[in-house]
Amino acid sequence: MMATLYRAGIRPRLRNQETMLLALMGVALSAGWVSLASQQAGRMTIGDPAIPVIYVGILFAIHLAFVLTGRRMDQVLLPVTGMLGSLSLLLMARLPQGLAGLSLGGLDLGLAPLQLLWLSLALAVLAILAIAVRNDSWLREYKYTWAAVGIGLLLLVFVLPPTGAERIDAPRLSLRIGPITGQPSELLKVILVVFLAGYLAENRTLLARTSTRLGPISLPPVPYLLPMLAMWGVALAVVIVQRDLGAALLFFTVFLTLLYAATRRFAYVVLGMAMFLAGAAVLYQLFPLVRIRVDVWLDPWSDPLDTGFQIIHALYAFGRGGILGTGMGAGLPAVGDTPGDLPAIH
Q1: How far apart are CA 252 and CA 272, in angstroms?
Q2: In the list 12, 226, 239, 270, which could disulfide-bond 248, CB 3.0-4.6 Å?
Q3: Is the pLDDT of residue 16 over 60?
Q4: Which run of H or of E encompasses 272?
Q5: What is the pLDDT of residue 78?
Q6: Where exactly are the structural domains of the chain?
């Protein structure tokens, strides 16, 4: 096998940092799984280890494939992805498994097995792309096309009918194409990073150069800043119309982070924060939804049974469990009007 790889021009390369981080991730997942199983059983037990063993095995198989194919990519990305997936498995295993209501090949799928299935498919796509794609120039060359695709997906939300889970008067966040339902703003987060990274990589030298000054803040040549700001404004405009304000804040943070990483100009961060505060003040006056969320954040007890209910719920949860929580599986999800129901997340 090694001879075949060498003849193909592929040189295996050890990825020691990735190995160590994946091992730590496996230990963390195992500890969480044992803690959850013991809490649910009322005694010390490891529970059914099939799900964590399969998941860790898939990650190490991908790691081995990266080693054998001599990949030089960042060795932190796969362990971080694996750790996020581990948390999702633990959280899904914590909940009543019958909530999934799905079956595959005659077998009922609980929430945790279903989550493992989705994670396996996602990791398979990750591995194929990471090994097969060895030149990312197509991402940089078509950065504006990717941005247009993201904006187009958001606009489709207004054209297609709402999903069955949405009220007519609710914010239009989801897009349904056949049996698949999702929020285009989630995909736009990735597309936005691709666009900004491609544009900044191409123009980082010019963006770091001082051309004009706005008071104490030096700015690059305006023509090189306008396309990025224009695309950013379009994305934010669509998100605001959708009333998905959390995504708008996340996009703005990503924008500032990448801009600073490319130019090392702290003045851009200061200017961006000033722009955000000014925009927030305008949004507070124009959009009732923003005004309600700001007001209830300042004083949730002003409307404890409606808009402030979730914040007050969280305050009581912190009061009972503290910052570190009560422990895996030791919460009280069944306490409420309908046991097993999860509160809405905004």
Answers
A1: 8
A2: 239
A3: yes
A4: helix 266-286
A5: 95
A6: 2-134, 138-295, 300-346
